[in-house]
Request: fold
Amino acid sequence: MTGAEPAVSRLSNRSKPRNIAAVSSSRRLLAYGLLLLVPTVLAGFGAIHLLRREQVRLAEREAYAGAARLAAVTARAGLIVESAELLVGDVQVGLLDTLATMPAAGLNEALAAWQPGNPLVRSAFRGTIDGRILQVVPGGEAGQAVRRRLAALFNDTLPWKTDSAQPEPAAPTAADTGPAREEQATRAAASSNVAKMQSARQDARSLAQSREYLARDGRKIAAAPAAALSLEAGRGESVAGPDRRGWTAVNAEGRRGLLGWLANTTTGEVRGLELDITALIARLGGVLPAETGGGEGYALRDEQGRIMHQTGWVPDAPDAAAVRVPLTGPVLPGWEVVAFLDAPVGRSGAGAGFFVVGLLLVGTFMVAILAGGALLIAQARRSELEAAQKTSFVANVSHEFKTPLTTIRLYAELLEQGRVAGAEKRAGYLRTIARETDRLARLVGNALDFSRLEQGRKKFAREEVDLRALLDGLLDTQTPLLAEAGLRLVRNLPAGPLRLSTDRDACQQIVLNLMDNAVKYAAAGGEMAVSLTPAAGGGATVEVADRGPGVPAAQRERIFEKFHRVDDSLTAEKPGAGLGLSIARQLARGLGGDLRCNAREGGGAVFTFTLP
Reply:
């Protein structure tokens, strides 16, 4: 027991620096991780806070912009309503003015020529103040229908004798057509839209005020002065005294209409007309803007919700209107101008989208930083481990070199000084020197191969090789070493030669590394078997099997990694640096083959070396 205590003490002393170094390395890596993680997390939270503030600001700005847009659309819709009502007023005033200027002489001919020539006039009539109808235009069956409608109306009430008649709309004033109206329109719409509205009103006014008529015989009937009917043509205002003018809503035969009339209580004469609502509606499209802003549209709808005119962006579901402005006049009750927007005001989600995109970018940035830092830390850890392994490798290789050199030097000095008695003993010393020389050469070869393979400079000298003879000679030289380790060698070689093109030295190095591995770790099994079998297609398979403890399934690939040993220690009781199997597999693959490890039936491990 006393002899074992110093050894345990030495192992314990060797493990202490390694444990201290491991703890120091772990603390250093932990410090690196915290230096990477803490600033990244703080920067991420700060960026998220700024994104949230920016989202709120964008949402507020979006709400302001939406309110401004809605106000502009509402103002434009109101302008369209005003323009439509002014156009209707222009038509009403112009038609009554035209009717008032017709000469008393030839009035029948004037009415007969005026009605078919003016699309705004559905019918015209002349009668007396007590409700008798003297003339109706057009004639024929259409005229009879007009007579029936007028008779039904006059039987109920005479509009010029009651206060129930709708007052005639005021004609456009200077404020409507002058600079004040132009300034208001310019603020609400572009100049092209104002020009379109003005043009529509001018066309309707010109058509309503047309005062040239053709008689049936083709001669032109000139317009009479405004006093021809002794009525004041004062642009729609009823005069003081007996003379009156106005408009009355009618609904006959299921059709809505407007009846305009002029009454002279002095002479007892009445002139009138029916306004063609359909023709008037057709001209209302001119009050809609010619150009609209992006994503907005306007429509004129009747009392049943049908769109009569539209411009700009109008959705398939027109009920979802942003603004509704009704027409207030009696001509088109229930009609309205509606405005549409392509997105709900203040609900485009731009702020939320910005926050989501920004959050994704910040998250990606943080993940990239953490992942990059983790990779750098892992690489630093691997570099540190490799540096420690290489340092240990140099120390172990130096120790491996020192052992055979010491043996060779000791035996050589004994032989040189003649202190070895007997020829058999001298021959044994010489065999030991030769064996240790081979071992030293193998260690040097492994070190050189490792350097060349790491640098990618390993070159293979291929030649025709009898693999059977190569293995047989190699096993002959290794038999004494195996016997000294307590291993019985079993050869399973073919009877005849097995030739293939390969590198002789590389093959010897692979087999020697496999045998050396068996001597180190499987000597307790007492047996090592080397087999050579031809493979299909002209290759060969070399197997080195032992009866040792075997290799766990999870370690059968890792044992071929450089510096790796099953017990994961470079200073285990068995000498070596954990490079033999790694070099053997790299050499095998450099020759075009492979090296694998499997469990041997009955216990132990079998290494299979294949050559193409």
